[in-house]
Amino acid sequence: MIIDIRNVNYIYNPNTPFEKKALNNINIQIDEGEFIGLIGHTGSGKSTLVQNLNGLIKPTSGDIIVDGINLTQKNANLKEVRQKVGLVFQYPEHQLFEETIYSDIAFGPKNLGLKDEEVDLRVKSAMENVGLDFESLKDRSPFELSGGQKRRVAIAGVIAMKPKVLILDEPTAGLDPAGRDEILGGIKRLYEKEKITIVLVSHSMEDIAKLVNRILVMDEGELVMDDIPKEVFKRASELKKIGLGVPQITDFMKQLKSKGFDVNDDVVTVEEAKEEIMKYLRRKEDV
Ligand code: ADP
After folding, report:
1. Apex 161 CA angle, 158 and 163, nearest 5
2. Is residue 216 left, alpha or beta, with left meaning phi > 0 and alpha meaning psi from -120 to 50?
3. Which of 38, 41, 48 best tests ligand 1's pocket when mutated (most atoms within 8 Å of CB)?
4. 3-state SS, one letter per residue, for 181-196
5. Exposed, middle or buried, 78 (CB in 10 Å: 0-12/13-18/19+)?
6. Where would a tag sit more exposed on the chain, N or C end, judged by fewer CB atoms within 10 A?
7. pLDDT digits (tens, 9 = 90+) for 145-161
8. Domain annotation for the chain: domains and CATH numbers
9. How far is the C-alpha of 82 from the C-alpha of 97, rounded, in Å?
10. DSSP 52
11. What digits encode the pLDDT tens for the residues 17-71?
12. φ/ψ of residue 12, rounded to 5
């Protein structure tokens, strides 16, 4: 197990008129190598939860243990924790600040005190992982890039720290479809290559269905579902009640079925739907 969240509560501004309970008795255990999707309506507590995972904020009560380190203990080594858990915030490109792409990505690794050659290797490999060409881009200013490229530079800066756990909060928000595909493709490549643990916060059920092995659903500070995508998306009406949808393709198959077509509506990706429809057509030909 790499992350163990036990009985965690989080209250903003306790004992003031602005008191707000954002996490209510959360229990989650995550194994190394899992790819987790974290979903929930705005305000359900997703950002609060992920900020707790790298010690940026500390639970009001309960324990969070990451790779053996209990973050809730007073003397926890938060520097070590932040190296283990890389957090990519929403719109991370707003935090780019160096003159060149190279120095921006190298900033974290340099702070770790690594040798120049190691920093160099890490910058190269992080850029490769997010699909940015090292030679042609390294000396350019990050501010000359497109929105999607800037964001990839920011993500590369976190990847270059070689975290064991990578948390991405809405990494594709505000990008066009090509920009989204590039970011998601990079995340998928990284996962397949490095086998790190990933937590992806997203409003896109399509992205979640395509990528993750397990989905956590939050509602009003509580964890209300924790299961594989197929099982979570079967519960379409419950999800609807808490302001969430299912992938469009799942909805489409459910509608086909309700119109009398004998198809399995238990699908979450376009590929699976294609197979189901082909099976249905072949059965019809045989009759
Ligand atoms: P999500 O990421 O799912 O949108 P958040 O974790 O941002 O949810 O918010 C959970 C709840 O905590 C919301 O009711 C939100 O208004 C409240 N909240 C978030 N940040 C703060 C803060 N800094 N001060 C007070 N309340 C906050």
Report:
1. 85
2. beta
3. 48
4. HHHHHHHHHHHHHHCC
5. middle
6. C
7. 988 999 999 999 999 99
8. 1-88+165-172+196-243 (3.40.50.300), 247-287 (no CATH)
9. 20
10. H
11. 999 999 999 999 999 999 999 999 999 999 999 999 999 999 999 999 999 999 9
12. -80, 145
Q: Does the pLDDT at position 74 exceed 90?
A: no
Do residues 42 and 173 touch, judged by C-beta distance below 8 A?
Answer: no
Query: Alpha-carbon Rg of the chain, whole angstroms?
Result: 21
pTM score, two decimals? 0.94
Ligand 1 atom nearest to CA at 18: 25
End-to-end CA distance of the chain: 51
- CA triplet 188, 193, 199: central angle to 5 degrees? 45
Q: Is the C-beta atom of 20 inside 6 A of ligand 1?
A: yes
Q: Which of 8, 12, 18, 202 to mutate to test the pocket of ligand 1 (most atoms within 8 A of CB)?
A: 12
- The pairs formed by 253-262 with CB atoms below 8 angstroms and a separation of 24 or more are none
Contact present, 91 and 173 (Cβ < 8 Å): yes
